[in-house]
Design a protein that fits this description.
The protein is mostly helical. The protein contains one helix and no strands. The chain is elongated, with a radius of gyration of 30 Å. It starts with 5 loop residues before the first helix and ends in a 23-residue tail after the last helix.
Length: about 70
């Protein structure tokens, strides 16, 4: 086997480093979105729907107007 050029090694190392940095940057950006969604969820209060009375009549769907 032929010996690889030293520049090829450095080029590969640089490419790996660049790819790792891009992945970290993407993770940070996605982490910000997740944190913002969590904060919004904490600020909002969830309201449970009121239960329907047992004597309520069921509503039937309306027919389309021709």
């Amino acid at each position: 086997m032929a010996k690889r050029n030293q520049n090829t090694f450095f080029k590969r190392q640089k490419e790996i480093k660049r790819r790792q940095e891009a992945q970290e940057k993407m993770d940070r950006r996605q982490g910000k979105k997740k944190k913002e969604e969590e904060q919004e969820g904490e600020n909002m209060q969830l309201v449970a729907p009121e239960p329907e009375p047992a004597d309520a009549e069921p509503v039937e769907p309306t027919k389309p107007v021709e």
